[in-house]
Amino acid sequence: EKGGYDHFMIKEIFEQPRSIADSMRGRLNAAEAQLQLGGLSNYMDKLVAADRIVIVGCGTSWHAGLVAEYLFEELARVNVEVEYASEFRYRNPVIKENDIVIAISQSGETADTLAAIELAKSKGATIFGICNVVGSSIARASHAGAYTHAGPEIGVASTKAFTAQVTVLTLMALAVAKKKGTITDEVFERLLAELDNIPSKVNKVFESATKIKEIAFIFTYAKNFIYLGRGLNFPVALEGALKLKEISYIHAEGYPAAEMKHGPIALIDEDMPVVFLATKDSSYEKIVSNIQEVKARKGRVIAIVTEGDTLIPTMVDFVIEVPDTHEVLTPLLSVIPLQLLSYYIAVMRGRNVDQPRNLAKSVTVE
Ligand code: F6R
Questions:
Q1: 105 pocket-lining for ligand 1 (C-beta < 6 Å)
Q2: What is the ipTM of this complex?
Q3: What would the pLDDT profile of 269-315 be if each residue is shown by its tens digit?
Q4: Is the CB of 137 under 6 A from ligand 1?
Q5: Measured between alpha carbons, how far is 227 from 188 in angstroms, rounded to an integer?
Q6: Extended strands (E) in 117-248
Q7: Residue 274, strand partner residues
Q8: What's the distance, Cα to Cα, between the start and end of the chain in Å?
Q9: How far apart are CA 251 and CA 245, in angstroms?
């Protein structure tokens, strides 16, 4: 059932061109510039009128929420707060009747996320569920929602579920933006076309798999890792670090690149691998200077760059290229090399990648 692969995780990583396409199928029609999210249509007016959106989730799903924060703010110009479900539910959160809560959960069974939406519901909020498992508790407890069509995810470390969540949240942000008129038709159409191209661009990232395996071999016995990114690539840095921790048991931290100088820079020496998300986007120049700061302290830098970048390869130890895309879609590509890097490192360390110690696929206890 692993389809010839050694582990479910690697099978699921390589399934992403299809799982992303499946999550858009019947919703996105790039040729006709049409976007339709059936599950949301009855609540579209509420979404458009909302003053604020609160996103709740745990782990990787929380990271997808952080990506969505950028998307909804940038495209739909709405206030977004992203909360760990476990923190949200035990505070006394201010929730008003016209608030929208988006719950993100692969399994649809995460106890803290379920409790968070029950709390928000009791205060009159409208709940949208973004779940992968059809008929799951969170899907049933939501007023409306959109499923991710990632297919069953067996590996404990979430991979294809994350990119499917980001895909569906992008469609949602675009649908709201279009309805609100916060983006031009031209940008809307360009983004639909770019989304349509994402599955084939993910396939292009896979061409670097051998190179990533070589890098993994070099860093197999690293004791620590730092992942740095800015903007939309900040949550990707968090996700890269989480993937590495959970399956290889290497201590890893994700950080916003600019925050590094407020503390973590003290960790940098010739033994510290630093993964930079350094794609050509609006924070490119800033990332370049962050890379200089790390190199000046002899850190070993692995940079995820946009295809054709000629500057960063002269500055760093290793580069992994991803195809160019519209800035807001970057996470769908930049996360892929990080999934592969953590997978290969974990395999080389002899870890049980599909079932890491102490972890369960769905966390139904708080
Ligand atoms: C990370 C991972 C966990 C889950 C988290 C939420 O690889 O698997 O961090 O993302 O437990 O699970 P769901 O999305 O099922 O609510």
A1: yes
A2: 0.99
A3: 999 999 999 999 999 999 999 999 999 999 999 999 999 999 999 99
A4: no
A5: 31
A6: 126-131, 144-145, 224-229
A7: 226, 301
A8: 31
A9: 6
Give the three-state DSSP class for 56. strand
- Hey, what are 113's tokens? 């996320």
As given in the structure block, the two tokens for residue 328 are 């807001």
For residue 25, report the distance from its CA to the centre of ligand 1, in Å.
Answer: 24
- The answer to whether 280 touches 230, Cβ cutoff 8 Å, is no
Instruction: For residue 245, indicate whether it is catalytic.
Output: no
Helices (H) and strands (E) in the chain, counts: 13, 12
Distances (CA, A) of 43 to 38, 50, 63, 131, 172: 10, 11, 25, 17, 12
Verify whether ligand 1 is closer than 6 Å to residue 158 (CB atom).
yes
Task: Say what the pTM is.
Answer: 0.98
In angstroms, rounded to a whole number, what is the distance separating the alpha carbons of residues 150 and 104?
14
- Phi/psi for 227 (5° steps) reads -120, 125
Q: How far is CA 309 from CA 25, 182, 237, in A?
A: 32, 32, 20
Lookup: tokens for 248:
């290889």
